[in-house]
Description:
Layout: E1 2-8, E2 11-18, E3 21-31, E4 50-51, E5 60-63, E6 67-76, E7 79-88, H1 96-117
Antiparallel strand pairs: 1-2, 2-3, 3-7, 4-5, 5-6, 6-7
Amino acid sequence: MTDTSVVTKSGSNCDVSVDGFPVVSPIVEQADKFYDSMSKGESFRFEIRKKTDSLPFDGSGAMGDKNVMISTSCGLPEVDHLVVLLTARDKDGKDTGKHRSDMERFMRDFVPRVKKAMACSA
Length: 122
């Protein structure tokens, strides 16, 4: 397993590979406005995009077969919003429904942890 992580002032990303196969890449970006994951401008990120059902935190999101995008408020003077992206590749690709469910479960847990780690007020 290899892990390459990058943290910058505007965000961070981490790429994890298993046996040379890229498995998961979470990315956190700081944004000065809300980015709607269902807008036409964000459609390039998805294969078979679907709006994420109600989230247990402030924000909205969308999911594709291999990725999820969540936009949420942060409420800090220097960080108004966060955009959290997840790309997760399913090597065998046999059960897209389960893969989507796993990605959604991960993001419902991950995003509140990111907000807490970044000391977001909203």
